[in-house]
Specification:
The chain is of the alpha/beta class. The chain contains 10 helices and 8 strands. The strands form 2 sheets. It has a 5-stranded parallel β-sheet with strand order 2-6-1-7-8. It has a 3-stranded antiparallel β-sheet with strand order 3-4-5. The structure holds 2'-deoxycytidine-5'-monophosphate.
């Protein structure tokens, strides 16, 4: 059966990763969460104090640091985790603070160039589901299946609000909604590779869909592409 590249892009907190993971498992494909890679860079930069001052990053220091980072994915008993220089950093990269830091570092051109090249290497052999913001537009413009996922900001904020509550780190709904809107603004307005739907991407608005409905729809699109 033919192996393809599946590119899944979309807004933050719209359930992209969950859908992408489910599709990778259905297809027997590798799954790459590119957001986790930007988060790993953000974690390393914040540990070095490079993100302490809002709107100011020492780019020379960041570039040096980036050259020393090894970002990878490892299989653990709890599923696929992100590793930074050989150490599992999955829990640390999932905080709201690192999410915002990732949004900052992801706007820097040399960070994107390096991570995009790593992502292209990971997908060279095909048989991969990759999710992010620029997969169908920049990383794999020739991907056989491109999906652009979205949901209303309120629905996404409610999902993030519930997640934070479940983790025991609640925030007010208004703050979560503001964070969703701020992140959307930054992701869609940055100069390099802003988030946008590729012309040939299929739109999946899951505001009113269950996980099962989304998975079924995605699988049906995938099945058509591997024929
Ligand atoms: O999907 P996420 O929330 O884990 O992504 C973290 C940040 O990284 C988010 O602000 C967008 C950015 N990102 C990006 O610019 N390009 C990607 N391919 C993936 C994520």
């Amino acid at each position: 059966m033919k192996k393809i590249v599946v590119a899944i892009d979309g807004h933050s907190s719209c359930g992209k990763s969950t859908m992408a993971k489910a599709l990778a498992s259905y297809a027997g494909y590798k799954y790459v969460d590119t957001g986790a890679m930007y988060r790993a860079v953000a974690l390393a930069a914040s540990r070095e104090g490079l993100l302490d001052i809002p709107n100011e990053i020492d780019l020379a220091k960041l570039e040096k640091l980036l050259a020393t980072l090894e970002i990878d994915f490892i299989v653990t008993s709890q599923g696929q985790h992100t590793s930074l220089n050989g150490i599992d950093v999955e829990a640390e990269i999932r905080t709201l603070q690192i999410g915002n830091a990732a949004s900052r570092v992801s706007a820097i051109p040399f960070v994107r160039t390096q991570l995009v090249s790593l992502q292209q290497d990971m997908g060279r052999a095909k048989g991969i589901v990759m999710d992010g913001r620029d997969i169908g537009t920049v990383v794999f413009p020739n991907a056989e299946l491109k999906v652009f996922v979205t949901a209303s900001p309120e629905v996404r904020a409610k999902r993030r609000f519930d997640e934070l509550l479940a983790k025991g780190t609640p925030m007010s709904f208004d703050d979560v909604l503001k964070d969703v809107l701020d992140r959307d603004y930054r992701d869609t307005h940055r100069e390099v590779s802003p988030l946008k739907q590729a012309d040939d991407a299929l739109l999946l608005d899951n505001s009113n869909m269950t996980r099962e409905e989304q998975s079924a729809l995605l699988q049906s699109w995938f099945d058509k592409r591997i024929l």
